[in-house]
Specification:
GO terms for molecular function: oxidoreductase activity, acting on the CH-CH group of donors, NAD or NADP as acceptor. The chain has ten helices and 17 strands. It is an alpha/beta fold and about 375 residues long.
Protein backbone atom coordinates (compact mmCIF):
# COMPACT_ATOMS: atom_id res chain seq x y z
CA UNK A 1 0.00 0.00 0.00
CA UNK A 2 1.36 3.40 -1.05
CA UNK A 3 0.85 6.03 1.62
CA UNK A 4 1.82 9.40 3.04
CA UNK A 5 1.94 10.21 6.76
CA UNK A 6 -1.54 9.44 8.12
CA UNK A 7 -2.67 9.97 11.73
CA UNK A 8 -4.63 7.37 13.67
CA UNK A 9 -7.48 9.82 14.34
CA UNK A 10 -9.06 12.68 12.41
CA UNK A 11 -11.50 15.51 12.98
CA UNK A 12 -14.94 14.85 11.59
CA UNK A 13 -18.24 16.74 11.50
CA UNK A 14 -20.73 14.31 12.99
CA UNK A 15 -23.71 13.75 15.23
CA UNK A 16 -23.86 11.12 17.97
CA UNK A 17 -27.66 11.04 17.91
CA UNK A 18 -30.04 11.91 15.13
CA UNK A 19 -31.36 15.43 15.16
CA UNK A 20 -31.00 18.96 13.79
CA UNK A 21 -27.69 20.73 13.13
CA UNK A 22 -27.74 22.18 16.65
CA UNK A 23 -26.64 18.71 17.83
CA UNK A 24 -23.69 18.44 15.48
CA UNK A 25 -20.10 18.47 16.69
CA UNK A 26 -16.56 18.21 15.40
CA UNK A 27 -15.16 15.06 17.01
CA UNK A 28 -11.95 13.05 16.92
CA UNK A 29 -12.79 9.75 15.22
CA UNK A 30 -10.66 6.90 13.86
CA UNK A 31 -9.13 7.60 10.46
CA UNK A 32 -10.49 5.11 7.88
CA UNK A 33 -8.03 2.38 6.95
CA UNK A 34 -7.46 0.72 3.59
CA UNK A 35 -8.28 -2.99 3.81
CA UNK A 36 -8.80 -3.80 0.13
CA UNK A 37 -6.60 -3.44 -2.90
CA UNK A 38 -9.04 -1.19 -4.78
CA UNK A 39 -9.47 1.42 -2.05
CA UNK A 40 -8.27 5.03 -1.97
CA UNK A 41 -7.85 7.22 1.11
CA UNK A 42 -8.36 10.91 0.35
CA UNK A 43 -7.06 13.83 2.41
CA UNK A 44 -10.05 16.15 2.22
CA UNK A 45 -9.37 19.79 1.35
CA UNK A 46 -12.99 20.91 0.86
CA UNK A 47 -16.43 19.37 1.27
CA UNK A 48 -19.91 20.55 0.31
CA UNK A 49 -23.19 20.31 2.20
CA UNK A 50 -26.36 19.05 0.52
CA UNK A 51 -29.94 18.78 1.83
CA UNK A 52 -29.53 14.99 1.86
CA UNK A 53 -26.68 15.38 4.37
CA UNK A 54 -28.95 17.25 6.76
CA UNK A 55 -31.75 14.72 6.25
CA UNK A 56 -29.42 11.83 6.98
CA UNK A 57 -28.14 13.44 10.17
CA UNK A 58 -31.75 13.88 11.28
CA UNK A 59 -32.43 10.15 10.85
CA UNK A 60 -34.81 10.51 7.91
CA UNK A 61 -33.36 7.48 6.11
CA UNK A 62 -33.99 5.04 8.95
CA UNK A 63 -35.38 2.33 8.77
CA UNK A 64 -34.79 2.21 5.00
CA UNK A 65 -31.04 2.20 5.67
CA UNK A 66 -28.86 1.01 8.48
CA UNK A 67 -27.23 4.23 9.65
CA UNK A 68 -24.31 3.86 12.08
CA UNK A 69 -23.65 6.33 14.85
CA UNK A 70 -21.81 8.60 15.17
CA UNK A 71 -23.14 9.71 11.79
CA UNK A 72 -20.35 11.38 9.80
CA UNK A 73 -21.77 14.16 7.63
CA UNK A 74 -21.18 14.83 3.94
CA UNK A 75 -20.86 13.12 0.56
CA UNK A 76 -19.14 15.67 -1.74
CA UNK A 77 -15.41 16.28 -1.47
CA UNK A 78 -12.26 17.38 -3.24
CA UNK A 79 -8.78 16.64 -1.96
CA UNK A 80 -5.50 14.82 -2.51
CA UNK A 81 -4.82 11.11 -2.48
CA UNK A 82 -3.19 10.14 0.82
CA UNK A 83 -2.92 6.37 0.33
CA UNK A 84 -3.90 3.70 -2.18
CA UNK A 85 -4.44 -0.05 -2.13
CA UNK A 86 -2.06 -2.34 -3.99
CA UNK A 87 -4.47 -2.83 -6.91
CA UNK A 88 -5.10 0.87 -7.61
CA UNK A 89 -3.78 2.11 -10.95
CA UNK A 90 -5.97 5.13 -11.79
CA UNK A 91 -4.52 7.52 -9.19
CA UNK A 92 -1.37 7.86 -7.14
CA UNK A 93 -0.50 9.48 -3.81
CA UNK A 94 -0.58 13.25 -4.15
CA UNK A 95 -3.08 13.39 -7.04
CA UNK A 96 -5.83 16.00 -6.81
CA UNK A 97 -9.25 14.34 -7.00
CA UNK A 98 -12.95 14.88 -6.39
CA UNK A 99 -15.81 12.48 -5.80
CA UNK A 100 -19.14 11.70 -4.19
CA UNK A 101 -19.01 9.13 -1.41
CA UNK A 102 -21.33 6.13 -1.90
CA UNK A 103 -24.56 5.38 -0.05
CA UNK A 104 -23.78 1.66 -0.24
CA UNK A 105 -21.48 -0.04 2.29
CA UNK A 106 -22.38 2.70 4.77
CA UNK A 107 -20.63 0.99 7.67
CA UNK A 108 -17.27 1.29 5.91
CA UNK A 109 -17.58 4.09 3.34
CA UNK A 110 -20.91 5.78 3.91
CA UNK A 111 -20.79 9.43 4.73
CA UNK A 112 -18.05 11.58 6.10
CA UNK A 113 -16.73 14.02 3.50
CA UNK A 114 -16.65 16.83 6.09
CA UNK A 115 -13.73 15.05 7.72
CA UNK A 116 -9.99 15.24 7.39
CA UNK A 117 -9.92 11.89 5.56
CA UNK A 118 -12.42 9.82 3.56
CA UNK A 119 -12.23 6.29 2.14
CA UNK A 120 -13.62 5.35 -1.27
CA UNK A 121 -13.14 2.77 -4.01
CA UNK A 122 -10.97 3.56 -7.03
CA UNK A 123 -13.89 3.44 -9.49
CA UNK A 124 -15.55 6.49 -7.88
CA UNK A 125 -12.48 8.74 -7.65
CA UNK A 126 -11.90 11.18 -10.53
CA UNK A 127 -9.10 13.64 -11.19
CA UNK A 128 -10.16 17.15 -10.16
CA UNK A 129 -11.03 19.46 -13.08
CA UNK A 130 -7.89 21.42 -13.93
CA UNK A 131 -9.74 24.74 -14.08
CA UNK A 132 -11.25 24.49 -10.58
CA UNK A 133 -9.85 24.94 -7.09
CA UNK A 134 -10.76 22.50 -4.30
CA UNK A 135 -13.74 24.54 -3.04
CA UNK A 136 -15.26 24.80 -6.52
CA UNK A 137 -14.68 21.13 -7.29
CA UNK A 138 -16.24 19.98 -4.01
CA UNK A 139 -19.47 21.79 -4.87
CA UNK A 140 -20.16 19.72 -7.98
CA UNK A 141 -20.39 15.92 -7.63
CA UNK A 142 -23.73 15.13 -5.98
CA UNK A 143 -25.84 17.76 -7.72
CA UNK A 144 -24.22 17.19 -11.12
CA UNK A 145 -24.55 13.41 -10.88
CA UNK A 146 -28.19 13.87 -9.92
CA UNK A 147 -28.78 16.09 -12.96
CA UNK A 148 -27.01 13.70 -15.35
CA UNK A 149 -29.03 10.76 -14.11
CA UNK A 150 -32.24 12.78 -14.50
CA UNK A 151 -31.47 13.74 -18.10
CA UNK A 152 -30.47 10.16 -18.89
CA UNK A 153 -34.03 9.10 -18.01
CA UNK A 154 -35.45 11.11 -20.93
CA UNK A 155 -35.93 8.94 -24.05
CA UNK A 156 -34.37 10.67 -27.03
CA UNK A 157 -32.79 13.39 -24.89
CA UNK A 158 -33.71 17.08 -24.83
CA UNK A 159 -31.94 18.35 -27.96
CA UNK A 160 -34.00 21.21 -29.40
CA UNK A 161 -36.75 20.76 -26.82
CA UNK A 162 -38.30 23.09 -24.23
CA UNK A 163 -37.05 22.20 -20.74
CA UNK A 164 -38.51 23.57 -17.50
CA UNK A 165 -36.04 23.57 -14.58
CA UNK A 166 -37.65 25.18 -11.51
CA UNK A 167 -35.32 26.83 -8.96
CA UNK A 168 -32.54 27.57 -11.41
CA UNK A 169 -30.19 28.90 -8.74
CA UNK A 170 -30.60 25.94 -6.39
CA UNK A 171 -28.02 23.16 -6.13
CA UNK A 172 -29.44 20.69 -8.66
CA UNK A 173 -31.33 23.38 -10.59
CA UNK A 174 -28.25 25.50 -11.33
CA UNK A 175 -26.38 22.53 -12.78
CA UNK A 176 -29.42 21.10 -14.59
CA UNK A 177 -30.12 24.41 -16.35
CA UNK A 178 -26.52 24.62 -17.58
CA UNK A 179 -26.52 20.98 -18.68
CA UNK A 180 -29.81 21.33 -20.51
CA UNK A 181 -28.54 24.13 -22.73
CA UNK A 182 -24.76 23.64 -22.91
CA UNK A 183 -24.37 19.85 -22.76
CA UNK A 184 -27.66 18.42 -24.03
CA UNK A 185 -28.64 21.11 -26.55
CA UNK A 186 -32.07 22.14 -25.24
CA UNK A 187 -33.83 24.62 -27.50
CA UNK A 188 -35.35 26.62 -24.66
CA UNK A 189 -34.73 26.58 -20.91
CA UNK A 190 -37.27 28.05 -18.48
CA UNK A 191 -36.60 28.53 -14.78
CA UNK A 192 -37.94 30.22 -11.66
CA UNK A 193 -36.25 32.37 -9.00
CA UNK A 194 -37.31 34.91 -6.40
CA UNK A 195 -37.32 38.68 -7.01
CA UNK A 196 -33.93 39.32 -5.40
CA UNK A 197 -32.27 36.71 -7.63
CA UNK A 198 -33.66 37.76 -11.01
CA UNK A 199 -30.59 39.80 -11.89
CA UNK A 200 -28.24 36.98 -10.87
CA UNK A 201 -29.34 34.34 -13.36
CA UNK A 202 -27.17 35.36 -16.33
CA UNK A 203 -24.20 36.22 -14.12
CA UNK A 204 -24.31 32.95 -12.21
CA UNK A 205 -25.30 30.48 -14.94
CA UNK A 206 -23.92 32.27 -17.98
CA UNK A 207 -25.62 34.50 -20.50
CA UNK A 208 -27.94 32.60 -22.82
CA UNK A 209 -28.30 29.51 -20.63
CA UNK A 210 -31.81 30.46 -19.46
CA UNK A 211 -34.24 31.78 -22.06
CA UNK A 212 -37.11 32.66 -19.72
CA UNK A 213 -36.93 33.44 -16.00
CA UNK A 214 -40.10 33.67 -13.91
CA UNK A 215 -40.33 35.45 -10.55
CA UNK A 216 -42.35 32.86 -8.65
CA UNK A 217 -42.99 35.28 -5.77
CA UNK A 218 -45.05 37.50 -8.08
CA UNK A 219 -46.37 35.10 -10.72
CA UNK A 220 -47.51 31.50 -10.56
CA UNK A 221 -45.36 29.62 -13.10
CA UNK A 222 -48.30 27.30 -13.79
CA UNK A 223 -50.25 30.34 -15.04
CA UNK A 224 -47.34 32.07 -16.79
CA UNK A 225 -45.99 29.19 -18.86
CA UNK A 226 -48.48 28.21 -21.58
CA UNK A 227 -50.20 24.89 -21.08
CA UNK A 228 -48.97 21.96 -23.20
CA UNK A 229 -45.76 23.84 -24.08
CA UNK A 230 -43.04 22.04 -22.10
CA UNK A 231 -41.37 18.87 -23.40
CA UNK A 232 -39.39 17.94 -20.29
CA UNK A 233 -39.47 19.07 -16.66
CA UNK A 234 -36.46 18.48 -14.41
CA UNK A 235 -37.95 18.78 -10.93
CA UNK A 236 -35.68 19.14 -7.90
CA UNK A 237 -38.17 20.98 -5.65
CA UNK A 238 -41.31 18.82 -5.67
CA UNK A 239 -43.35 20.87 -8.17
CA UNK A 240 -44.32 17.97 -10.45
CA UNK A 241 -48.03 17.77 -9.67
CA UNK A 242 -48.62 21.53 -9.83
CA UNK A 243 -46.92 21.69 -13.24
CA UNK A 244 -48.65 18.81 -15.02
CA UNK A 245 -50.80 21.03 -17.24
CA UNK A 246 -47.66 22.67 -18.66
CA UNK A 247 -46.37 19.44 -20.20
CA UNK A 248 -47.11 18.48 -23.77
CA UNK A 249 -48.85 15.18 -24.40
CA UNK A 250 -46.08 12.65 -24.44
CA UNK A 251 -43.88 14.98 -22.41
CA UNK A 252 -41.91 13.83 -19.39
CA UNK A 253 -41.24 14.80 -15.80
CA UNK A 254 -38.13 13.53 -14.05
CA UNK A 255 -38.04 14.29 -10.32
CA UNK A 256 -35.50 13.95 -7.53
CA UNK A 257 -37.83 15.53 -4.96
CA UNK A 258 -41.52 15.43 -4.15
CA UNK A 259 -43.05 11.97 -4.74
CA UNK A 260 -41.18 9.25 -2.84
CA UNK A 261 -38.61 7.28 -4.86
CA UNK A 262 -39.51 3.84 -6.10
CA UNK A 263 -38.40 0.81 -4.12
CA UNK A 264 -36.29 -0.20 -7.11
CA UNK A 265 -34.40 3.09 -6.96
CA UNK A 266 -33.80 2.76 -3.23
CA UNK A 267 -32.56 -0.80 -3.57
CA UNK A 268 -30.21 0.36 -6.31
CA UNK A 269 -28.26 2.41 -3.78
CA UNK A 270 -28.63 0.09 -0.78
CA UNK A 271 -29.29 -3.63 -0.33
CA UNK A 272 -30.31 -2.95 3.29
CA UNK A 273 -33.84 -1.82 2.38
CA UNK A 274 -36.45 -4.04 4.09
CA UNK A 275 -38.64 -5.94 1.61
CA UNK A 276 -41.86 -4.40 2.94
CA UNK A 277 -40.57 -0.83 2.60
CA UNK A 278 -39.38 -1.56 -0.94
CA UNK A 279 -42.81 -2.82 -1.95
CA UNK A 280 -44.62 0.11 -0.29
CA UNK A 281 -42.40 2.55 -2.20
CA UNK A 282 -43.04 0.69 -5.47
CA UNK A 283 -46.80 0.88 -4.80
CA UNK A 284 -46.61 4.65 -4.17
CA UNK A 285 -44.51 5.08 -7.31
CA UNK A 286 -47.13 3.20 -9.33
CA UNK A 287 -49.82 5.57 -8.02
CA UNK A 288 -47.70 8.59 -9.01
CA UNK A 289 -47.15 7.24 -12.52
CA UNK A 290 -50.87 6.51 -12.89
CA UNK A 291 -51.82 10.01 -11.73
CA UNK A 292 -49.32 11.71 -14.05
CA UNK A 293 -50.32 9.39 -16.87
CA UNK A 294 -53.87 10.76 -16.74
CA UNK A 295 -52.38 13.88 -18.38
CA UNK A 296 -50.65 11.69 -20.98
CA UNK A 297 -47.32 12.61 -19.43
CA UNK A 298 -44.55 10.19 -18.52
CA UNK A 299 -42.92 10.24 -15.07
CA UNK A 300 -39.73 8.88 -13.57
CA UNK A 301 -37.71 9.61 -10.45
CA UNK A 302 -34.03 9.57 -9.59
CA UNK A 303 -32.26 8.68 -6.38
CA UNK A 304 -28.68 9.53 -7.23
CA UNK A 305 -26.17 6.70 -7.20
CA UNK A 306 -22.48 7.73 -7.38
CA UNK A 307 -20.91 6.72 -10.68
CA UNK A 308 -17.31 7.28 -11.72
CA UNK A 309 -17.83 7.26 -15.49
CA UNK A 310 -20.62 9.84 -15.19
CA UNK A 311 -18.46 12.05 -13.00
CA UNK A 312 -15.70 11.78 -15.62
CA UNK A 313 -18.19 13.08 -18.20
CA UNK A 314 -19.09 15.94 -15.85
CA UNK A 315 -15.40 16.76 -15.38
CA UNK A 316 -14.99 17.03 -19.16
CA UNK A 317 -17.97 19.42 -19.39
CA UNK A 318 -16.49 21.55 -16.61
CA UNK A 319 -13.11 21.77 -18.34
CA UNK A 320 -14.87 22.63 -21.63
CA UNK A 321 -16.71 25.48 -19.90
CA UNK A 322 -20.15 23.93 -20.35
CA UNK A 323 -20.76 23.74 -16.60
CA UNK A 324 -19.45 26.09 -13.96
CA UNK A 325 -19.75 25.62 -10.20
CA UNK A 326 -22.17 27.74 -8.23
CA UNK A 327 -20.63 28.28 -4.81
CA UNK A 328 -22.43 30.21 -2.10
CA UNK A 329 -20.99 30.58 1.37
CA UNK A 330 -17.56 29.13 2.15
CA UNK A 331 -16.87 28.27 5.80
CA UNK A 332 -13.79 27.23 7.72
CA UNK A 333 -13.92 23.77 9.29
CA UNK A 334 -13.33 25.27 12.73
CA UNK A 335 -16.40 27.51 12.38
CA UNK A 336 -18.85 25.01 13.88
CA UNK A 337 -21.44 27.65 14.73
CA UNK A 338 -21.38 28.99 11.18
CA UNK A 339 -21.78 25.45 9.82
CA UNK A 340 -24.74 24.82 12.13
CA UNK A 341 -26.32 28.12 11.06
CA UNK A 342 -26.04 27.39 7.34
CA UNK A 343 -27.24 23.81 7.72
CA UNK A 344 -30.22 24.97 9.77
CA UNK A 345 -31.10 27.27 6.87
CA UNK A 346 -30.86 24.31 4.50
CA UNK A 347 -33.00 22.22 6.87
CA UNK A 348 -35.71 24.89 6.83
CA UNK A 349 -35.62 25.12 3.03
CA UNK A 350 -34.64 28.77 3.02
CA UNK A 351 -33.01 29.41 -0.32
CA UNK A 352 -29.55 30.73 -0.80
CA UNK A 353 -27.53 30.91 -4.01
CA UNK A 354 -25.07 28.13 -4.62
CA UNK A 355 -23.63 25.38 -2.50
CA UNK A 356 -22.33 25.71 1.06
CA UNK A 357 -18.71 24.51 1.04
CA UNK A 358 -16.46 23.86 4.02
CA UNK A 359 -12.71 24.44 3.77
CA UNK A 360 -11.39 21.45 5.69
CA UNK A 361 -7.77 22.44 5.15
CA UNK A 362 -6.38 25.56 3.51
CA UNK A 363 -2.73 24.64 2.99
Amino acid sequence: MATSSIPETMRSLCTRRFGPPSRWEIADLPTPKITRGDEVLVRVHAAAINPTDVGGAMGRYWPAFSVPLPFKIGYDLAGTVAAIGNEVTKVKVGDEVFCCLPFKDREKYGTGSVSEYALITETLVISKPKNLNFVEAASIPLVALTAVQMFDKVPGGVDGKTVFVPAGLSGVGSVAAQMAKNAYGAGKVITTVSTTKLSMVDDVLGRGVVDETIDYTKTNPAKTIPQNSVDVMIDSIGASFSSLALLKRGGMIVACAGPPPSGRNVRNISTEVPFLIEKILDFLDAITRWWVGRYQVKFDSVLMNPNGSELERIKDWVEEGKIKPVVGRVLKFANLEGIKEECTRIMKGKGGVGKVVINVITD
